[in-house]
Amino acid sequence: MGIITPSAPVILFVGMISGRTMLFDEVRRPLITRFGPVDLESPVYPWTHTTYYEKEMGPDLKRQFLFFKQPIPPDTLHEIKRFTNELEQRWVQTSPERNLRQINLDPGYLAPSKIVLATTKDYSHRIYLRDGIYAEVTLMYQGKSCAPLPHTYPDFRSENYIALFNEARRLL
Q1: Cβ(160)–Cβ(154) under 8 Å?
Q2: Class of residue 50 by CB neighbours under 10 A (exposed 0-12, middle 13-18, buried 19+)
Q3: From 41's CA, which of 22, 63, 65, 142 has a CA 20 to 30 Å away?
Q4: At 158, is the secondary structure helix, strand, or coil?
Q5: Which pTM was predicted?
Q6: Average pLDDT for residues 127-156, to the nearest whole number?
Q7: In the chain, what percentage of residues exceed pLDDT 70?
Q8: 8 A C-beta contact, residue 162 and residue 140
Q9: b vs e for 81-98, b when ≥16 Cβ sit within 10 Å of the residue's Cβ?
Q10: What is the DSSP string of 61-114?
């Protein structure tokens, strides 16, 4: 029989996607208020791996990641995703035809063996957490680097992201 032990704390990160990079600074404030100081900030990357968000958010999207200094318990990821969804709502532009999201926030965590993302969408490789939130292992560590899995999003397969997550892992 296995012995039940508490999970080790993990490093919280939030990926931000927007066509208006000034929103990265605006969103950073409530994130820091809630999660504490940022330990590592990525460059702003062009987000060209898919057109998934263009209809809702427009073209020429950018992505930036914030990694927070204060470790979190991994079982709080569902609460964090619900909080980031509420933040996204602050910047939704409504019109008679539709609502337009201005920023997308993707929280996740970095553990010694993996990168986990939170999502509201169910799929075969995702595990239900609670309150409508699922989690998926997006990257795993093999040898001395993180490696994609068959379901890993195209942007998380890029050399830039893999180098970034390897650097963030050294902070852990």
Answers
A1: no
A2: exposed
A3: 142
A4: coil
A5: 0.94
A6: 95
A7: 96
A8: no
A9: bbbbeebbeebeeeeeee
A10: -EEEEEEESS-B-GGGHHHHHHHHHHHHHHTPEE-SS-EE-SEEEEEEEEETTE
